[in-house]
Prior knowledge:
Elements: E1 2-8, H1 15-27, E2 31-37, H2 43-46, E3 52-62, H3 65-77, E4 82-86, E5 99-102, H4 110-128
Helix pairs in contact: 1-4, 3-4
Amino acid sequence: MRTVVVAVGRLRPPFQDDVAHYQKLLGHRTRVEVVEVREDEDVQRRIPARAFTSLLAVDGKAYDSEGFARFLEQRRLAALDLCFVIGGAYGLQLETADHRLSLGPLTLPHQLARVVLLEQLFRASKILAGEPYHH
Length: 135
């Protein structure tokens, strides 16, 4: 299973270093590709065909770390690519999304949401591997 993160907007410091850090950590465990698009209109064409699409949204489903790991394992067992979509500063409506994911009730800057998502993907990979993850 390939995981793709499609994000509206260009990543800027200080978030670039954090995203690079988690991409490096994830690179040893799973395939995660981060794709930046300029405009909301560019999102749909960057979602892989036959991918399960999860839109990050404040009204989405929230998980604890173990629940998120189970969600990822279910996606892996379904043998489809997984695509997370992060909107820009004003959010994004994506009617074709299969799922809506919330990182919590707080509103996060879209660049920080990218860091948090990658960190949670890394944490979930550790949980699924049976490794300690509270570090």
